[in-house]
Amino acid sequence: MSSAQPLTDSTVTAEVFADIFREHPAGVAVVTADAGDGPVAMTVTSVSSVDVAPPILMFSVSGRSSSAPTIRAAQTVVVHLLDADDVEIAKLAATHGVDRFADTSSWSRLPTGEPRYHGTRAWIRGKTVSSMDAGDATIIAVEALEVGAAEGKSADPLVYHARTWHGLGDHSKLDPTGGRI
Question: Sheet holding 76-81: strands in order across?
């Protein structure tokens, strides 16, 4: 946000709200799915863990995304948790008007049929268990069915902040003693 002026309820416009969240860093993930019309991919910064028993995560899908109808319709999805080495996958899945699956060497289908990008730090295949419309978006809850990780991969997690990609690493630690909250 460009100013530190206090806001009131009457000043919460779409622009002000977007500006506030641009300054809030978020982990980056790519969600892939195929509801029968071909694979789609979408970059999201809204993935979060909901519960561990059963293992449930959630993310939101913007209604403005061309991938939204397929992700909403799919019974299963793959959520790829990205690190800084995966920024090109994040950029690809965030780019409008491109074939996100043109490079057939960068992805394959799981035995269950879902598209999965190769080499990402971790991925979670899950089934949609709930969804809720929220404005122009849909919040989707997914129960994890299968997980995978790239062996030996230890790059910094990928974070999006102020319209820029960042690698979150040791250089950004505020407590060098490793203290926990």
Answer: 40-44, 29-33, 76-81, 122-134, 137-149, 55-62, 48-52
Question: Is the peptide bond between 111 and the residue preceding it cis, with omega within 30 degrees of 0?
Answer: no
Region of 97 on the Ramachandran plot (φ > 0 left; ψ -120 to 50 alpha; else beta):
left
Structure tokens at 121: 């730090």
Q: What is the DSSP-derived secondary structure letter of residue 104?
A: T
CB 124 within 8 A of CB 147: yes
Whether residue 148 contacts residue 78, with contact meaning beta carbons closer than 8 Å, is answered with no
DSSP string, 88-119: HHHHHHH-TTS-TT--TTSEEE-TTS-EEETT
Q: In angstroms, rounded to a whole number, what is the distance separating the alpha carbons of residues 33 and 56?
A: 17
Q: Token pair of 62, please?
A: 């913007």
- Closest by alpha carbon to 41, among 56, 51, 28? 28
Helix (H, G, I), strand (E, B) or coil at 9: helix
pTM, two decimals, is 0.87
pLDDT per residue as tens digits for the range 86-115: 999 999 999 999 999 999 999 999 999 999
- 138: Cβ contacts below 8 Å, ≥ 6 apart: 60, 61, 63, 68, 72, 131, 132
